[in-house]
Each structure stands twice: as structure tokens, then as C-alpha cells.
Amino acid sequence: MKEILYYTWGAIVSFVVAFSVGITYMGLNRKITARVQNRYGPPWYQNFIDVIKLYSKKTSIHHGVMHHMGPAFIMVTAVVSLLVIPILNGNKFFPNLNFQGDLIFLLYIMVFGPLGMALGAGQTGNPNSAIGVTRGLSQMAGFEIPWVMALVALMIQYKTTSIVDLMNVQVESGRWLMFSSPFAFLAAVMAMLGMFRYAPFDIVGAPQELASGPMSENGGKYLFVMMSAGSVFTFAKLTLYVDIFMGGADNLIILVVKTFTLYLIPMLYGITSPRYRTEQSVRWFWGWPSFFGLLAILQAALF
Amino acid sequence: MINDKNSQKIVDIIQNFARQHSLWVLAYGTGCGAIELPPTMTSRYDAERLGVRGAATPRQADVLLITGYLTTKTLKRVIRVYEQMQDPKYVIGFGSCTINGGMYWDSYNTIKALDRYMPVDIYINGCMPRPEAVLSGFAKLQKLIQAGKADGAKKYKENLEWYRANQKNVIPNWRMPEYNW
Ligand code: SF4
To answer: Which end of chain B has fewer CB within 10 Å, C or N?
Structure first.
């Protein structure tokens, strides 16, 4: 009983931390984008205000059951991956549900949300949503390949499928996997650009082209759920990268510094790029990132 | 506890604050006034610092901008867009064309006063209004929201028959889906 309470409490605390950090990052993203475009920009807490406003909107849209479930799928994905990914080294303060094989589990669960959203978007009958979904799934076929290759390389090299084991390897040897498996890191970071869907890979929700794609029929509270899930998922993904490649973190401050540094990569790459077309994007992922993934597997198998 | 009056007041203050500082705009570019929106949104005047931001679809938007004259044909689409938006929603009429017809006052196929067909919360006059005027319009709307007085949507629901009669008066072939908003 005490254990259950402990885990529930831990889950709530990690959710709140992930939500506030993630949404602050997205607000900072808007601010930095504005500064790069020589604007003053919204305050960093603008996204908090947006979220409260979205929650306080009355929402009466009905397109069918799947449409209501779509945002819930995304939320479930975000929360489950957050619970599986260890937040700090040695499971300090944040209990989590890691187990042997959680890397493989994560690979599956991370595509679960977009698939559920695809079903929901399909039911709205909005042509923009349908186009957005097809684009999203093709892009996923693009970036999943270097991402899986990078993870498989790590699994081969260290003979484990557990994130905690990978973190322990780095703590014991004192060397980040980023340096001992550089090709895997490169492939994974390039795949991350697609995962975050910032420009030039924002072909899914392109607002000027597709009217925000899969979520074009979702306003008010649906958008609230999606935005919160997005911020939790942002934090979860960044934490996963820090855990695997940058030696994890001993406390929250180090974690925030590391994740924000990592977050700057897709952000700055996005601000300075225009948008790709779908086939360009897929081709990009099957080019250099996959090549680096292959090199990573070779390195893991041969050395 | 949740239902008592004082806690409702606090909730209202928080909600109105959030609504006031996060206005997602659906710019329905009907007339010439739409050309003033790009400068309002981009580096020179930067409306995003006030929380004003473009929304992609009516479902996500809070503010509907009618940027100029409306032909009867466009009016039909605008009404549909307005009814798809989620409460609370606001309408800004842009330019003298929405107020009294402007230079199209004797045109055979534009409407004269937008107010007869849709509830307008704020008018911005001028032909066309400069970005400064647009920003001051937004600031006025924010003040109204803060005071809880921007209730155009409520007016629309209460006087739906009157609005519908006016709309059907000018739109000859009225074939619109019924919404359950
Ligand atoms: S008010 Fe003037 S600028 Fe605006 S739509 Fe009418 S004619 Fe054009």
C-alpha cells in the first residue's frame, strides 16, 4: 500500500515538473524565435496563459468517439513515456517504472500517440486533417529509421535494453555515450529534428498550408490536452536523450541545463530554416542520418 | 465551496486575465484591410507581445477579424465560420466598410452595417486603419474582456431570430447546416 502511494505521488510530481518545464521551454522557444526575427516577442510565460485560456473555453464539437479519444491518446503516450524514462540518476526523488527492455517498449509507445491522433483526425472528415496525417506518417517512416538504428547500435554495444543500465555504464566509465558512440549520437540527434516537428520538418501541422493539419478540428479543451501533452512529451524526449547520451543528471538544475542545451538544436535549426516538402523531408532522413546510423551499428558490431 | 460566489469571482478573474492576454486571431481577409495585418503581426508592430497570435482554423480562434467590406456571398461563409468558433468568441469590425458601408455604401452586393448580421464587439474605423489603430483596437478589446463586457456571442444567442432573419434577407439561397453549438 505504501509503495503504491509512493509511486502515485512520484508520478504526480514528475508530471507537474515535466509540464511546467516543457511549457516554459515552448514559451522560450517563442521568445527566442521572436528575438531572431527582430521582434520583442511574447513573455516567456505566454504558453501558461494560452493553456489556461484554452482550458476555460467552452467546447462543443462532436465528430464521433474517436475524435474525442485522439487527444487522450497523445496524453497517454506522453505520460507513459515520462513514467518509464528515468528522470534523475539512480532514481533519486522521482520513482519510475523502468524495467529490462524499456528501450524497446519506448520505441513502440512513442508512435502510439500519433497513431491514435491519426484515427481521431480521420474521423473529423476535415481534408486538411487527412493530408496532415498522411504527411505525419510518412515523415515518421523517415525519422524512425535513424532513431531505431541509433538505439539498436547502443543495445548491441552495451548488451542491454534498459535505460538505467546505459546510464550506469556512463556513470561507471565517466564517459558520456555521446563521445564513446558518436555516430549513434549524430543519428539520434538528426532524428530528433524530425521528432520535434519544428521547421524545416513542420510539414504535419503547417499552419499556412494545412491549417494546422491533424488538429484543425480541435479547439478549446482538446487543444489544451494536446498542448499539455506536447509539453510533457517534449520534456520526456529531452530527458531520454540526456539519459542515454549525456550521462543523465544528478539533480534538476543540471537536468534543465542539459535538456535546454539539447533543445536549442532543433529550435535554432528550425528558426533558421524554411519548410521542406514531404518527400524532401523523408529523403533527408534516409540520407545522412541513416548513414550515420549504419556507421553506429558497424562500430558497435566491430569494435 | 466551488459554487460559492467568491470563489467563482476568483475563477472569473483568472479566466478573464487569460482570455485577455491570449487572443488567437482568425483574420478573415475579406476586403482591402487585410493588407494591414502582416505589418501588425511582423517585426515592426509585433502584435505577439500582447498575446495576439494567428490561429489556423475557426475551431481554435477567439477573435474573428472582418477586415473590410463583405459581399453577400462572403457573408454566408463568414457566418458559418463564426458559428464554428468556440465560446467565448469576439468579433472585430475593421474599417469603415463594416460600420456603414464606407465607399461601398451604395453597392448592390455588399452589406452596409455588419452589426445587423453579426454581433461586433469592437469597431476599428479608418479606411484603412493603420497598424497602430489595429493595436489600439486590440487593447480596447482586452479592456472589455477584463471587465467581462465583451459578450457579443451571448447577444447573438439571445437574439438569434433577429440575426437569422436579417441574414436570410440578404442571402438568397440559404442552405446551411444546423449547428448544435
Ligand atoms: S474601409 Fe476602406 S480599406 Fe477597408 S475594406 Fe472598406 S474601402 Fe477597403
So the answer is: N
pLDDT in 10s for each residue of chain B, 181 residues: 556 777 888 888 888 888 888 889 988 777 788 888 888 888 888 888 888 888 888 888 889 988 888 888 888 888 888 888 888 889 998 888 888 888 888 888 888 888 888 899 899 988 888 899 999 999 999 999 888 888 888 888 888 888 888 888 888 887 777 665 4
Residue B177 within any structural domain of the chain:
no
| A52 closest CB neighbour out of B14, B49, B57 | B14
CB atoms within 10 A of CB A100: 11
Residue A46 to residue B42, Cβ atoms within 8 A: no
Domain presence at residue B75:
yes
Structural domain including B96 reads 25-170
pTM for this entry: 0.88
Complex ipTM: 0.86
Instruction: For residue A174, give its domain range.
Output: 2-302
The DSSP result for A79-138, as a single string, is: HHHHHHS--SGGG-SS-----TTHHHHHHHHHHHHHHHHHHHHHHH--HHHHHHHHHHHH
Sequence-ordered list of residues with C-beta below 8 angstroms from that of A237, at least 6 positions apart, any chain: A81, A110, A192, A195, A196
CATH number where B36 lies? 3.40.50.12280
**In the numeric block, which cell numbers belong to residue A133?**
496525417
